[in-house]
């Protein structure tokens, strides 16, 4: 028992030593943090990491805005809603640790490669506006997507969208798209499936696409 307690104290000290002085003060009473459900940080110049993740077992909502030094080396697997706007993010490889995400907003960053998101099958809402993305082929596997914002990127090909039968709202303005046929195919496939399954779950096969924006709205 004594050895276990000693190891726990040593581990706690190690975790705390890896935090910035500011975060050390915030986390010193970490036992209370396990009750936290949401975390919001704005305009923080310090490096934000999740080394204290083991004490945030209840955390499921994270919102960062204008935080330029976010480390994703270790992230809570319990997070369901994650937003990091204008945070100078370029690499999203570690994001896949958050496999329970249903909402992901990484708008206003410097992201070019989103190939890792193809395993995040729980996603319902994906917001990647104002980045530098050209290839969205890996979005095709996100069959639960209802909302997709890809405006202000470098996208030319939207073939990945034709397999997203649950997609209801799409933003694509300010890209390089010239062919909208994939969206027409998505609706045609859904209509055809509905025709052949009228005695089954009809609504399951209907296209849910109700909002599509290719041009920015006038303010």
Automatic annotation (TrEMBL):
<dbReference type="InterPro" id="IPR025875">
    <property type="entry name" value="Leu-rich_rpt_4"/>
</dbReference>
<dbReference type="InterPro" id="IPR050836">
    <property type="entry name" value="SDS22/Internalin_LRR"/>
</dbReference>
<dbReference type="Pfam" id="PF12799">
    <property type="entry name" value="LRR_4"/>
</dbReference>
<keyword id="KW-0433">Leucine-rich repeat</keyword>
<dbReference type="Pfam" id="PF00560">
    <property type="entry name" value="LRR_1"/>
</dbReference>
<dbReference type="InterPro" id="IPR032675">
    <property type="entry name" value="LRR_dom_sf"/>
</dbReference>
<dbReference type="InterPro" id="IPR001611">
    <property type="entry name" value="Leu-rich_rpt"/>
</dbReference>
<keyword id="KW-0677">Repeat</keyword>
<protein>
    <submittedName>
        <fullName>Leucine-rich repeat domain-containing protein</fullName>
    </submittedName>
</protein>
């Amino acid at each position: 028992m004594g050895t276990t307690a000693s190891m726990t104290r040593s581990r706690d000290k190690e975790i705390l030593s890896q935090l910035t002085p500011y975060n050390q003060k915030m986390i010193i009473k970490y036992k209370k943090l396990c009750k936290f459900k949401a975390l919001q940080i704005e305009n923080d110049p310090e490096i934000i990491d999740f080394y204290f993740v083991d004490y945030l077992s209840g955390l499921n909502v994270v919102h960062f805005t204008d935080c330029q030094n976010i480390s994703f080396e270790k992230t809570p697997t319990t997070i369901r809603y994650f937003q990091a706007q204008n945070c100078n993010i370029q690499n999203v490889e570690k994001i896949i640790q958050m496999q329970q995400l249903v909402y992901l907003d990484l708008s206003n960053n410097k992201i070019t490669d989103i190939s890792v998101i193809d395993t995040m099958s729980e996603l319902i809402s994906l917001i990647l506006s104002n980045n530098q993305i050209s290839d969205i082929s890996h979005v095709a596997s996100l069959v639960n997507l209802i909302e997709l914002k890809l405006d202000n990127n470098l996208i030319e090909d939207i073939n990945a969208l034709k397999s997203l039968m649950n997609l209801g709202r799409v933003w694509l303005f300010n890209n390089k798209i010239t062919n909208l046929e994939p969206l027409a195919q998505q609706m045609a496939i859904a209509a055809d499936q509905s025709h052949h399954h009228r005695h089954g779950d009809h609504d399951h096969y209907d296209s849910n696409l109700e909002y599509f924006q290719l041009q920015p709205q006038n303010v």
